[in-house]
Amino acid sequence: MVSLFSILVFLIFAPLLSATDVVSSGQLIKNSAEYDGKSVTYRGEVIGEVMERGKYGWINVTDGEDTIGIWCKKEDLNKIKFAGSYRIKGDKVEITGVFNRSCSRHQGGLDLHAEKLEVIEPGKEITLPLDFKKVKLIVIFAFSALGLIFLSSLRKSSLKKPQEPTPPSSV
Description:
CATH superfamily of the largest domain: Nucleic acid-binding proteins
Number of helices: 5
Number of strands: 8
Radius of gyration: 32 Å
Number of domains: 2
Shape: elongated
Structural class: alpha+beta
Strand content: 25-35%
């Protein structure tokens, strides 16, 4: 009977034992001394360029609060299909690795050396709708500018015409 009880307790609490709390960039930056050299899990969107450096490389990952540089294996970099930019939503990733407050390998920068990287949500291209109010304003401003240029050129040409002398009046 004790073994059945032990199994039930294990099944109930096992997910809690293996679950790693996800930390935010704000927590990492604010409490960098506390997290320095420790294994953390960080989650966010890949943004910018994927930068390969031989067998390793860099990605920048933002959680909407701030951005952390992630140093990871080339195999992990190859998992990234979309890096966020103006018209692209980047892959959402979860990284578990060692946080460095001042990394001796990377000129003292704050970074995270990934031991595990998973794409948890694929990125995609974003289609931005055309804002017709802005299009109307552009057309109005363009025609206004052309009208002002036309009026200005008419005024200049009328100033350049020689005036005909007026005949003397007879009294």
